[in-house]
Amino acid sequence: MAEHHHDHEPLANNGIYVIAPSGAIHQPERLTLATQNLKQLGFKVKVDRQVKLVEERFAGSDSKRLEGIERSLVQPFDIVMAARGGYGLSRLLPAIDFNAVADSGKVFVGHSDFTAFNLALLAQTGQVSYTGPSMVTDFGVKTPNGLTAELFGEVMRGELEILSFQSPGSDPFDGRGVLWGGNLAMTVSLLGTPHFPKIKGGILFVEDVNEHPYRIERMLLQLAHAGVLAKQKALILGHFTDYKVSAQDRGYDMASVIEHIRKTVGIPVITGLPYGHTAAKVTLPIGAKVGLATEAGMAYLVIHEH
User: Fold this and answer.
1) Considering the entire predicted model, what is its pTM?
2) pLDDT at 218
3) 303 to each of 156, 176, 178, how far by Cα in Å?
4) What family does the database annotate (predicted)?
5) Does the annotation count 189 as an active-site position?
6) Staple partner for 287: which of 122, 140, 238, 299, CB 3.0–4.6 Å?
């Protein structure tokens, strides 16, 4: 297994190449808006020629979406960003040449469905990539979220040293480990495949959307029962949004899930990471060694240590 390290060098060619490896873009005019917003942040932008394709729910056929990834490896810009999430990368994983992806030295960014790409790249090459904004989802709006935009720029320029966030009631923790994870459903979908990273002593972070709290609990327990959680130093929970509880739940909700997980997984659980299917989202390196500490209702994620 090749080890690739293109760590946090200042990006020479400050541009973003946009691909659509997952769901179709519903409002193509948002691409124009996103391009303008990214240019205002100081990035050049080039959109792959097949980004607007539509086939069923996908941004073009599997082979066309794969071609977009392949083109992204040979174009001049340093950053490759997914247009949006949705579903589609699971179909492409066996066909993606992850060694070529790692050797390209490109910095990949996306979230949601893109978690499959982030984790497969890490599992197969050890290469760091990023979870953060997607072009259309986060920048294809009139006014992008200030925190999301600012943190994305800082992380891409290698300027973010410490991310602090409110984390009330979190377990005490002070340690270092490989940061990994992303969308919980996508992470769990890779268990038992060659695309699931074998991380020991890591710091796992997860988020999800449209999943009832019992499904969140079930997925976290699947990671626990598979022996994954016990091998990590800590579990960080981002935002879990857009679900509905019913009368049958009788008070069972995300708080119940967190309480149960905290009692049963045997590792520190830290909440409040500003990451998820939310307007405000941090950009994080997947596969990089980070520090994490909690103190007095706050958590501190050390992205760069000098």
Assistant:
1) 0.95
2) 98
3) 12, 10, 11
4) Belongs to the peptidase S66 family.
5) no
6) 122
CA atoms 219, 225, 227, 229: torsion sign: positive
For the chain, what are the domain ranges?
15-156, 162-302
- What is the bridge-based pairing of β-strands 162-166 and 129-131? unpaired
Taking CA atoms, 166 is separated from 81, 267, 272, 274, 305, in Å, by: 28, 19, 6, 9, 21
Annotated catalytic residue 207: yes
- Which residue is listed with tokens 């990949």? 108
CATH code of the domain occupying 162-302:
3.50.30.60
pLDDT band at 247 (very low <50, low <70, confident <90, very high): very high
Rounded Cα distance, 220 and 200, in Å: 17
Express each pLDDT in 16-69 by its tens digit. 999 999 999 999 899 999 999 999 999 999 999 999 999 999 999 999 999 999
Among 112, 134, 167, 170, the active-site one is: 112
The amino acid at residue 295 is E
Segment 287-301 mean pLDDT? 98
Closest listed residue to residue 122, CA positions, set 278, 289, 247: 289
Among residues 22, 167, 207, 217, the one annotated as catalytic is 207
| Higher pLDDT pick, 173 / 4 | 173
| Ramachandran region, residue 227 (left: φ > 0; alpha: ψ -120 to 50; beta: rest) | left
Q: 302: which strand partners? A: 162, 291
User: Under CATH, to which class is 15-156 assigned?
Assistant: alpha beta
In sequence order, the β-bridge partners of residue 79 are 16, 107
